[in-house]
Amino acid sequence: MPEDTMTELEKVTALKLGSMEAFNAIYSAYAPRLYSYCYKFSRTAEDAEEIVQDTFVKLWNSRAKLREDTNLNNLMFTISRRLVINAWRKRMSDPRYITYLEVQEQIEDSNRTEHAVEYDDFSRRMNDMIGELPPTQRKIVRYAKMEEMPNKEIAARMGLSEQTVRNQLSLALKTLRSRMGEERILLGLLFFFYMS
User: How far is residue 162's CA from residue 154's CA, in Å, rounded to a whole number?
Assistant: First the structure.
């Protein structure tokens, strides 16, 4: 009987008896779908191919235990799913994979530390430069940018007009941008002192 005309029941019955024709029919029907399924989880063609091959080896080795009413689709995908899980467990306990994860973690920690140091350095220099501004500008910058106080509130607190606060803030930011530009981190300043 041609492979493609066999019913599922006939394939299972023939497979139980060791039929290569039935095995090939099952392989033709399920291998492409199993490959797609395994590739989705393994992310490598080599691993997906290996899992598919192992699935069919398990099917062949356990053929005598199959029940005649076995649902091949459920069986094939159940075997593949278990093999995918086993492959992940194996990878997770592989010393090379563990070392890889540890290295990645160290790189991330190193980057976090680097960024923290850069930010601390930037923040220190920024505070130094703000400290060098004239007293009125220094207070306005601290209120506006550190405490996020609106110009109206700054004006009331300092006894100035809102226009004076805007002008002094503009002059202070221009001075800071100029000084930071000299230190080649203007971009950081613009981010830190976002002006709407």
Answer: 8
d(CA 90, CA 94): 6
CA 189, 135, 169 angle in degrees (round to 5)?
A: 45
pLDDT higher than 80, residue 78: yes
- Rg of the chain taking only CA atoms, in angstroms: 35
- For residue 98, the model assigns a pLDDT of 60
**Secondary structure of 105-144 as H, E, C letters:** HHHHHHHHHHHHHHHHHHHHHHHHHHHCCCHHHHHHHHHH
The two tokens of residue 20 are 């290569």
Tokens of 126: 């920024």
Amino acid at 99: T
CA angle at residue 145 from 150 to 162, to 5 degrees? Answer: 35
- CA-nearest of 104, 109, 87 to 42 is 87
State the DSSP H helix or E strand holding residue 29, giving kind and residue range, or none if neither: helix 20-42
pLDDT tens digits, one per residue of 102-121: 666 666 665 566 655 565 66
Give me the pLDDT at residue 17, please. 92
Helices (H) and strands (E) counted in the chain, each on its own, are 9, 0
What pTM was estimated for this model as a whole?
A: 0.48
d(CA 142, CA 158): 12
Q: For 15-25, b where at least 16 C-beta lie within 10 A, e where not — what string? A: bbeebeebbeb
Alpha carbons 21 and 28: distance in angstroms, whole number: 11
